[in-house]
Amino acid sequence: MSILVVGSVAFDTIETPHHGRADEVLGGSASYFAVAASYFAPVKLVAVIGEDFPTRERDFLASRNIDLSGLTVAPGRTFRWTGRYHEDMNVRDTLDLQLNVFSDFSPVLPDGFRDAPFVFLANINPGLQGGVLDQLAGPPKMIACDTISHWIEGARSELLALLKRVDLFVINDEEARLVSGERNVVRAARKILDLGPKSLLIKRGEYGVLSFSPNSIFAVPAYPLEEVFDPTGAGDSFAGGFLGYLAQTNDLSEANLRKAIVYGSVVASFVVEDFSLRRLHTLTRDDIERRYRQFVSLTEF
Amino acid sequence: MSILVVGSVAFDTIETPHHGRADEVLGGSASYFAVAASYFAPVKLVAVIGEDFPTRERDFLASRNIDLSGLTVAPGRTFRWTGRYHEDMNVRDTLDLQLNVFSDFSPVLPDGFRDAPFVFLANINPGLQGGVLDQLAGPPKMIACDTISHWIEGARSELLALLKRVDLFVINDEEARLVSGERNVVRAARKILDLGPKSLLIKRGEYGVLSFSPNSIFAVPAYPLEEVFDPTGAGDSFAGGFLGYLAQTNDLSEANLRKAIVYGSVVASFVVEDFSLRRLHTLTRDDIERRYRQFVSLTEF
């Protein structure tokens, strides 16, 4: 089954404390999600790029079985973000942000995209995320969305309206606190489920993921890595692996959701091993299966 | 099989951001460890208390099948600690510390304690921890030890000497960084294993536990709780449940070590549900088994 993703495609400049820097490398929530999901299912991408977007990167996305007919080229430059990671790589500062063509992004779904059974609304303005749902042909099997603190604080009513329309909300622990006003993660999750989503995935970076649904909690650690080069995109890659596996298996049982969370964690664990999406240039599905089995060994008792 | 524990018995005064405070309640590393371990195996306690230690608390410890013949009463007052937890309960400040009788503590093992098959050296000066090992009748099945930043920074050479003599080192993630000089937890663990211990347990508070041995890594999340009243003693209770289960089962296989880590996590998850050791006044082994099964549901995929 196919997956529709709407989000950003960007160029990132990244500074790290121990692994140097990368300048103007492919980034953006939709890029990470799409490539991660592409290991499992066909992906339809809706995003905007500028006239400066190189053929090389477009070809890379196309080579991953990603349908680019919703990738609009607008006059101007592609979205750019510059960030610097702290010694504690869970913390980063934004040094520069140039929205460029992204500032006028108003996603329009091509006809062939409107009936995608799986939909991921990557981080953009929640009003625009809602506008994507308005364009769908009918209710898909699953709508998932992400957001960031910027929208939780600045577009709260739009976000709350959106949450009533989604099946799954994917955020990190700090965002969960901000949405709910609760410091304790379990109470925060309960409050968020009351806002509409049927389930909630809370990403905790190097500490793993907590999944909440009305009758079940699932906790899984992150795969322990000796080197984290660049955590950028880990959350979107997690979501891509997760929804990709669900779309491939077309099974929304609790047991399969849990396997999907582990697949998402596995893909994210590879992504952070190099800057940008570089690790995914060589990663194979066999590599994913191998690390999935290591994940089982890591956690079973 | 029995467990010897050497450490502190104290009175704690604890301030929390949302659950009020508790004044002069039973605390200390050896108290938490001993009571937690007592659910699984007989415990022999070596510690010092002052003349002010109430019969009520002594009776509680004795009621838990803890051999108190190594609990010395010294002239003066019992060790006292006052701490305040932050909004983020992983962080606390020490407001007051009165070592009192603990300042001259030099543990002496009663004869019947020297051949205990399981030994836990709770947090005290690493020189004194080594002195305990000198008093053992022969090599036990397992020696485990804990420490804190104070000794890692202030008694490093004594600690390094001790680490060559222990099977298992139990510390938190910040202490692991301090011992190893490595920020990354996997690299930190590898460096620490090179210092002597056969295995290493890294406690990460609400994020669970990582276990490292030369050929295996085990990661387990913490049990998600809606209310954490008082995290004091969680680490020692974890160690108590862990070593208690090992002593009860007398099985040091990797599979059983993993089960023991989950039992330790379960006991710790109860301890933090109330101040001091209060929750353990009513906790039953059945409660532990029930939550162990919930832990399986929480983590299986």
List key phrases describing it:
homodimer; 301 residues; alpha/beta; UDP-N-acetylmuramoyl-L-alanine:D-glutamate ligase; 9-stranded mixed sheet; 4-stranded mixed sheet; 11 helices; globular
Structure explained in plain terms:
- 2 copies of one chain form a homodimer.
- The first copy, chain A, is of the alpha/beta class.
- Helices cover 37% and strands 26% of the residues of chain A.
- Chain A has a single domain (3-299), classed as UDP-N-acetylmuramoyl-L-alanine:D-glutamate ligase.
- The first copy, chain A, has helices at 29-37, 55-63, 126-134, 149-154, 156-163, 173-180, 185-193, 234-249, 254-271, 279-282, 285-299; strands at residues 3-6, 10-15, 21-27, 43-50, 66-74, 79-85, 92-98, 118-121, 142-146, 168-172, 199-203, 209-213, 216-220.
- In chain A, the strands form 2 sheets. A 9-stranded mixed beta sheet of chain A has the order 5-4-1-8-9-10-11-12-13, sandwiched between helices.
- In chain A, helix 6 packs across helix 7, helix 8 (234-249) packs across helix 9 and helix 9 (254-271) packs across helix 11.
- The mean pLDDT of chain A is 97.
- The A-B interface holds A 87-88, 183-187, 190, 204, 206-208, 210, 216-222, 224-228, 255, 258-259, 261-262, 297-301 and B 87-88, 183-187, 190, 204, 206-208, 210, 216-222, 224-228, 255, 258-259, 261-262, 297-301.
